[in-house]
């Protein structure tokens, strides 16, 4: 696979003294304790409200539909990379029948592995709802770069310069790249290039206001047509 991103004019490196990435000039991205505390506070408040008021009725409804539609567990757990490149188990509602390629092969249009209920859940992004528990556990944020499956990360990190810079922050349930159209199956150079560039932009320009904007845009995107989700 070709190199998707060229080396930047301002290369990043990981500092053992800080909790995030800095440039050679000393600029810090989401590393100081105050910003980390603000982002964590937002994550906790929003996820607790969602779990308290939305989960009690939506979770059982989706669980029943999944169980009636196909055999298998309701929750699917996939190993993914998080902040600092540490692995964690990412929770999702199961959208596929049991198969040996669930961790290595992306879902594609008219994928026979995807169940009938799974198609709706993936299209509406409702399959991501269990990740609010990941937020409470501290593995994820409400907003951040979407976590990729471990095999994909190994592949992309080999072929894309500065790819791991997106792991300077916790992965998110929703992200800037996704609400700008870069979600779903990666089919071309443009798909991955646009996604990583927006992930890097988010890390470098994070603010609480930006998180609120992405959250607002995410709510709008859920009710709009997006052909990338399948």
Automatic annotation (TrEMBL):
Residues 39-223 form the Bacterial sugar transferase domain. Belongs to the bacterial sugar transferase family. Signal peptide: none annotated. It holds the Pfam family Bac_transf. Keywords: Membrane, Transferase, Transmembrane, Transmembrane helix. GO terms for molecular function: undecaprenyl-phosphate galactose phosphotransferase activity. The lineage of its organism: Bacteria, Pseudomonadati, Bacteroidota, Cytophagia, Cytophagales. InterPro entries: Bact_transf (IPR003362). This is Undecaprenyl-phosphate galactosephosphotransferase. The keyword Transmembrane helix applies. The chain crosses the membrane at residues 44-68. Its EC number is 2.7.8.6. The keyword Repressor does not apply. It comes from the Bacteria. It is an enzyme of class 2 (transferase).
């Amino acid at each position: 696979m070709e190199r998707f991103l060229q080396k930047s004019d301002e290369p990043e490196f990981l500092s053992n003294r800080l909790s995030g990435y800095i440039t050679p000039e000393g600029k810090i991205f989401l590393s100081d304790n105050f910003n980390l505390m603000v982002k964590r506070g937002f994550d906790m408040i929003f996820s607790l409200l969602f779990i308290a008021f939305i989960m009690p009725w939506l979770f059982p409804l989706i669980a029943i539909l999944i169980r009636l539609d196909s055999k298998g567990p309701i929750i699917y757990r996939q190993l993914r990379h998080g902040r600092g490149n540490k692995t964690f188990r990412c929770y999702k509602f199961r959208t596929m029948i049991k198969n040996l390629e669930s961790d290595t092969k992306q879902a594609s249009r008219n994928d026979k592995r995807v169940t009938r209920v799974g198609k709706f859940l993936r299209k509406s992004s409702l399959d991501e709802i269990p990740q609010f528990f990941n937020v409470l556990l501290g593995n994820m944020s409400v907003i951040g770069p979407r976590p990729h499956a471990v095999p994909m990360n190994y592949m992309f990190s080999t072929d894309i310069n500065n790819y791991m810079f997106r792991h300077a922050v916790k992965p998110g349930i929703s992200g800037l790249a996704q609400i700008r159209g870069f979600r779903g199956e990666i089919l071309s150079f443009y798909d991955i290039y646009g996604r990583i560039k927006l992930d890097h932009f988010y890390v470098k320009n994070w603010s609480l206001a930006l998180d609120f904007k992405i959250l607002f845009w995410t709510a709008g995107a859920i009710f709009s047509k997006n052909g990338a989700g399948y």
